[in-house]
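User: Hi! I'm a student and our assignment asks us to look at how structure tokens line up with a sequence. Could you show me two examples?

Assistant: Happy to help. In each example below, the sequence comes first and the structure tokens follow. Example one:
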Amino acid sequence: MAAHLRKVAAAARELLVDRAAAGWGVERGALRVDGGAVADPATGRALGFGALAGGGALEEEYGDDAPITPPARWTVAGRSAPAVDGRAIVTGRRRYTPDLARPGLLVGMVLRAPRSGARLAALDMAAAAALPGVAIVRVDDFVGVVAPDRQAAGAALGAIRAEWAGGERHDARDLFASLRAQPAPAGGGGRPGRPQRHEVGSVEEGRAAAARTLARTYNVAYIAHAPLEPRAAVAEWHDGRLTVWTGTQRPFGVRDELARAFGLPEADVRVVVPETGGAYGGKHTGEAAIEAARLARAVGRPVKLVWTREEEFTQAYFRPAGSIDIASGVGADGGLVAWECHNYNSGASGLRTPYDVPHQRSEFHPAPAPLRQGSYRALAATANHFAREVHMDELAGALGLDPLAFRLRNLQDDRLRAVLEAAAARFGWGRAPAAPGHGSGIAGGTEKGSYVATCAEVAVDRAGGQVRVVRVVQAFECGAIVNPDGVRNQVVGAIIQGIGGALFEAVDFADGIILTDRFSRYRVPRFADVPPIDIVLLDRPDLPSAGAGETPIVGIAPAIGNAIHAATGRRLRSLPLAPHGLPPGGDDAPAE
């Protein structure tokens, strides 16, 4: 959105200059904009943007001709700027949805089915209804309680006796086979997307001309968003109109969901977004908002609903699992001649190879998913980069070539080449291992207009199989950098989060029940897991700015996987790589 927002800001600035010129009766060309104000150097007069706006709306269509300030003339952009409310964040003064209060506020909780799709067979609410100050709300299979505080609501929920029937009974052991066995019909689902296909040349001809071919399968588990702030909402009805305060990444989408759920025109629904805790793509939908609104309408009072940690792990959607087939061919000179990739379920983001291959085919196949799934940081680009960059290492090894040299040999994209070379130079690529059991890996890629290359060193305890990331160097380029410190923070955060998905994060389920339902059963990166991280930012003021929040996560998993192979000789092709240390046995099944 950076390009759009800059144009909107530029158009607004020009509108305010026009207002000042008209009010002072001077030529607009004689005025100057500086420090959030319009000034007339001839008279010394100045008015701030707020005063010129007059407290009203600024409504004017903007176009591509809005006068954007080029990077060469930046005076604020391009320099690091601290967060305006940084002190409030680190001292706990920042207020989130769970901190909000309204006059007469009550607290709500919802009865949950043990597995997806289960239906209520029997319900005994007598004991809960007898508790003081408690109201029970039932709408079909939706059952909730409202009480003066969270403790009372929890006691009431625990007093309800419910029997459930039916429901999905999927098992994690069958996950990847089930995704590949029954692709979804074309045009169906919409999440994680519709079937996609990209083809150049003839893969069959390329494979026939190849001096060497390789076929492998790579798997990626479901993982949870695990945000520190669980989903939460405060709902209030007044004269048939609904206001909801909720931490969401899609306030307009949540407004649409609320309007549909309660049969209201959008004009009668207002969604207010307070400060929002980390979401990583997990807070797009409005389940908590709808639940809070349903309870509030039933009791005629404002209601706050905050999901428990168990609800967050079992009721929210996950990053899609996936199974990815890659079949490739290389010529005698080490040049790629054929590339075929099929992604089952995890998504199409980052699916196409950035390497130079004359004959290539890439397809995404949606599948009926056993668990609820949706957006996650970088979408499917993490899965597709893992499969592709591990496969590139496997090809390099089969040819006896250095992994970096093999990538550069097959690369015409100068931006990807630049980050690979920058990361390798800072890392000291090609040096001998620091100690026995150490290994280094490299990976690169591009997504959403940004480019990344990651080098990782790992240490593997051969006796216990434990894997430790020793250090990470990552080069990142996202066009013109607006706030270097902000970009660096995003890149470091993405790497740390990516270490979890690379090594140990996975949703486990059996008989349709989520087993990883709390942090004690679902491991995320801890302080001890964070290695020294060195970030190389490549500023390109000649290019438009692109986002920095997602792409930096895609390189760490393949870099770690390739480093494990360098340290041990074992090739692991499934994420997470080492949830309980290295798995027993040799390489992951090659699926030739």
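Example two works the same way, sequence first and then tokens:
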Amino acid sequence: MNKLIITEKPSVASNICDALGIKDKDGSHKGYIEDDNYVVSWCFGHLIELAEPSTYGEQYRKWSYETLPVLPDSWRYEIKEDTRGQFEILKTLLNREDTEPVEATDCGREGEAIFRLVYEMAGCKKPFYRLWISSMEGDAIREGFSNLKPGTDYDNLYASAICRQEADWLVGINGTRLFSTLYGKTLKVGRVQSPTLAAIVDRDSEIKSFRKEPFYTVHIIKDKLDAASDPIKDKDIAEKLALSCKGKVATIVSVTEEEKTIASPALYDLTTLQRDANRIFGYTAKQTLEYTQSLYEKKLLTYPRTDSRFLSDDMEVTARRVLSTVRKVFGFIGEGGFDNYGKILNSKKVTDHHAIIPTVETGSADLNTIPDTEKNILALVAVRLACAVGEPHKYTARKAVLSCAGEKFTIKGKTVTKKGWKETEENFRKAFGMEVKDKESILPVLVEGQVFLDVESKSLEGFTKPPKAYTEDTLLSSMERAGIDEMSDDVERKGLGTPATRADIIEKLVTDGFVKRDKKQLIPTEDGIKLISVLPETLKSAKLTAEWENELASIAKGETDPEIFLSEIKDLVKKLIAENHEVTEEQRAIFGNGSREILGKCPRCGSDVVKGKFGPYCTCKSCHMKLGKALGKDLSDEQVKSLLEGNRILVKGIKSKKGKTFDAFLTPKGISDFSYTDKDGQEKTGFQFDYQLEFPD
């Protein structure tokens, strides 16, 4: 029997072939590689997706409140048209008598779904094995193949993946159709997307409603000494204090010293890497994931979609080899003080995958062939490994309190006693031309009872600061911590989404027009603000969506019944639709459809057809319907209105294929789908009217 290895992407298939020495026998195979012992093929991400609502009944083609909720009794899946050819290849290979399947898709929930759906859609009944690795290095791949697991070991993980897909479909389809039909505009709703948008809108509201307030601090100054009072709200009181201190005596009433230690940071998981890459390099979360995934496929980083910040207990030797390698590649890391390996090893805190670290392949790679964006990420991960095993950073914190005119004034200072891991961080910042943070502020020698004569004094005005707009760094942190107060300590995953999905959620909010980027800041658009204003609290609740993620994690561990979970989701959808069944005309106009002339209702989805700059179109973007022409002739607004009402219209000057001109009555007899390629080269499906022609007498 030949092992049939199925990967998630062609690049991973190539890495496995290199590691196992697999070479195509004759080079003639399309979509797979085969030698005497192995057949290697691949997916292109998801080849199978949940079917559209219309496959469950023609009534679901049209978006209307009356057809809600859409709750399939048995779920249907479809092959994606743009990858159908590769699916057919996989189907043939899976059902060949001489193949034994090995699942080698990414090790996680989504990777499990990608393989299993292809396996099931192909009708394959063979037992299969699972490759579970965290690195694309040759040694890791070979070790993984020597320890293949039965595919059934991951049945619960697959169940969680299917529950995630179906739950998202239920809430997304029903929520989007519900609020889109109520308000006459396509309004995307999602279990993670909506509360994430709500967080951005709430922060924007806090900023807009913020009113800065002045405060004042009084400073007493003598030579290099500058001590400040606590903030004072009243300007007159501050100025009087400054005046009363001017030329007076200041006495030190206390001097305290405290030795402080800052432990080295933990290794990167995907979210912390995305946050630092956004803060340091300005990369979006999606860009960081793409660069990290590319480095993984180049065998230079370990598996990126992880929420663990530790290595397993048996990885100390690997970590030492990797650090020795990256120190030669990135000379600025430095030479010594890297021996705190016990801090990064903890098998109990490693979930599906360990933390992200470089691989020893970095030492032999030609970094000149790697894009700067990827090199930056590689350097960032290498430096984090060095920092994580570095010595603690130590400093002495000093504080002196002075008395003058009956008030207390404070001055603080800091002296570094041991740079430790922060020296590596400083070297990194210098190498990349960044400002070095955390500078010393050394106090002069001060002792209790010391007196300063004839001090200067002044009152300085300051203002309270508004909250800062979210960046991807701070939003990712907020998503990670969302709902944390409502969860028990033993919960494995917390927050909105997973490390692998948060980037896509942010990107969807931007592409759907609900959030815009202003440099690093994420700002809600007018439509984003309006959408949150009309959604019920249920869909904006971080608590609810965080609980969902944890239930999915519980399903993956075999602790929760998938059917019970999905039943609860269906009940939620039913309640949502029952409680949001109508809006007033004034509420309906909130999204501005009143400013565009409405010509009628879309026959496919029930949304408004409005008059646009380039002709009438359906306000539901998924329809891709424009109605400016019929058989090549421009239509007037009145003709469009009549057609949408199902009436017959007279169109003059229609040209036949032979170039002859004629007049005809057109009666809409239905609609039909058609495929086309958009400006980005993506296959899309739209629809068009089908007409019955009648010629005038």
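Here is something you could point out in your write-up. The mean pLDDT is 88.
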